[in-house]
Amino acid sequence: MKVAEFNLAIHESCADEEKFTVEGKAPGGLDLAGLARKAEGVFNRAMLSEKLGVLYLIRGEITVHLHADGEIVVNRIASTAEAEDILSPLFKD
Hints:
Order of helices and strands: EEHEEEEH
Number of helices: 2
Distance between the termini: 8 Å
Number of strands: 6
Strand order of the largest sheet: 1-2-6-5-4-3
């Protein structure tokens, strides 16, 4: 799966208006447990809730929400290009 397939787009601006919330959708859903393993060493913190079907990642001030159904939300990001850069290590084969 490639990050370019997620159709990432700016959804709204954050409180400081220089950062944004970017949203997208991964076709076919996501393997959250596998992504949690890949997040080790890339993100400061990874929290997986299998019950809720969400993987929550923190890297500095940036937060990423990955949902089992494929929904992707990246908060406090400067651009969609930066969101792609943050996500790309998780989706390398």
